[in-house]
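haha ok so turns out i had the wrong file open the whole time. this is the CORRECT one, sorry everyone. sequence first:
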Amino acid sequence: MMKVVIAGASGQLAKSFMYEFNKRKIEFIAPPEEEFDITNYYKINKFIAPFRPDLIINCAAYNNVELAEQNTTQAIDVNYKGVRNLVKISQLYNIKLVHFSTDYVFDGMKNSPYVETDTPDPLNLYGKSKLAGENEVMPYDNSLVFRLSWVIGYGKSNFLYKLTNWIQNNDSIMVSNDEISVPTFTFDIVKYVLMALDKKLTGLYHLTNSGKASRYELAVKYVKLMGFTNEIIPVPMATFKTNVKRPLVTVMSNKKISEILGVNIPCWEESLKIYCNAVRSNPDLRF
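then structure:
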């Protein structure tokens, strides 16, 4: 029976893994961050040594793009140095390591979907720190790295949760219509990661739902499905004042992982419907 340690237990992706492992009766530990601080090698070694898991799933990340520019040290510690620690631990005990990266390793200037062989060129500190983490994991031959985009799950740290808060306080909301990527849902991520593990895959894959959308298109469909009546106003991303450079179009192709697994990954609209149905029937899921 497989034994798993999940890092970053408080995040929306980790919670989706925990839900699925409970369903499948897979033994796992998801320690709180203060007990399993990936930036502290000795602390995580003390935790791993007695448990000896077969698999570590790293859902820990510093993913606040704006704050990463100010809290540079913290972002680098988590997204790069912490990942390096997990690689060392995994090598020491021969543990499979699953790690998640981001579409923000790209500059958004390509005119077609990004594939795994495209050269990364991150525009901001967040993207640079995540790329540094990737580069730590990739040489380890017992690892799986998945680049994700616009992750949405049952939790607070996603665009739809923030949008819901804005909706409750404003009749009309401005949303960027030139920022384009692929909304990707945690329940789909978990499903295909576990399939990849069953096939004993290693290496780098883009794991997204199918299709693409602007933030505006996503917001409009979400508002309609949830029965809200607020006006969503399309505006360019430049409308929002920020000191952080963000890539505009970071659509990634999921063709490689789809073909290897022999699956058709659902379009984001299909998974959005599942998400909205779940949230409508149980509003607490949002929190």
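The domain at 3-155+183-212+250-266 is CATH 3.40.50.720 (Rossmann fold).
again sry for the mixup
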